[in-house]
Amino acid sequence: SVVTDVHAACQDGTVTQELLQAGFHRELLVKVELGGGGEDAGGCTVAARIRLPPGVYVDPYELASLQRHNLTKAVLVPNAADVEAPEYSATELLVLLYMEPDPRCSRCFRASLPMHGRYHRPAEDSEEASVVLKSPEVLLCCC
């Protein structure tokens, strides 16, 4: 779990990322808690802009299926990803993940994103490869 601070023009808050499950098929859970006291943030729209390094990807076909069933509001840029490419020939992907209000907290939002690991180059000394996820950018509109 990774926690980072959010500093926007009108809000302070906290972002938490958790990588769930194990192996090549994971789920990224992103949570945002807005600062600003006890006011309700029900009128706010929150999105996380996530840059995925070449070692992981979002399957565009899986994402389209989840969108059709209203299970996610995520946009993949570019909207086509080579799901067969190994890490060393893949490129970074950008995901815009729209977040839902958390019913347990009036200033909290959350969303999850299925993601998959790519094959890396063979290594002699280690059986593991590291993929570093950067902190997402949080986009906030309280209109």
From TrEMBL:
Checking InterPro entries in the record gives: PIG-X/PBN1, PIGX
Cellular component terms per the entry's GO annotation: endoplasmic reticulum membrane
Q: Please report the record's description of how this protein sits within the membrane.
A: Single-pass membrane protein
Alphabetic keyword roster: Endoplasmic reticulum, Glycoprotein, GPI-anchor biosynthesis, Membrane, Transmembrane, Transmembrane helix
One GO biological-process annotation of the entry reads: GPI anchor biosynthetic process
Localization recorded for this chain is: Endoplasmic reticulum membrane
Q: Could you confirm whether the keyword Glycoprotein appears in this record?
A: yes
Pathway annotation from the record? Glycolipid biosynthesis; glycosylphosphatidylinositol-anchor biosynthesis
User: What family is it from?
Assistant: Belongs to the PIGX family.
Q: What does this protein do?
A: Stabilizing subunit of the glycosylphosphatidylinositol-mannosyltransferase I complex which catalyzes the transfer of the first mannose, via an alpha-1,4 bond from a dolichol-phosphate-mannose (Dol-P-Man) to the glucosaminyl acyl phosphatidylinositol (GlcN-(acyl)PI) intermediate to generate alpha-D-Man-(1->4)-alpha-D-GlcN-(1->6)-(1-radyl,2-acyl-sn-glycero-3-phospho)-2-acyl-inositol and participates in the sixth step of the glycosylphosphatidylinositol-anchor biosynthesis. Probably acts by stabilizing the mannosyltransferase PIGM.
Q: What is this protein called?
A: Phosphatidylinositol-glycan biosynthesis class X protein
What is the species of this protein? Ceuthmochares aereus
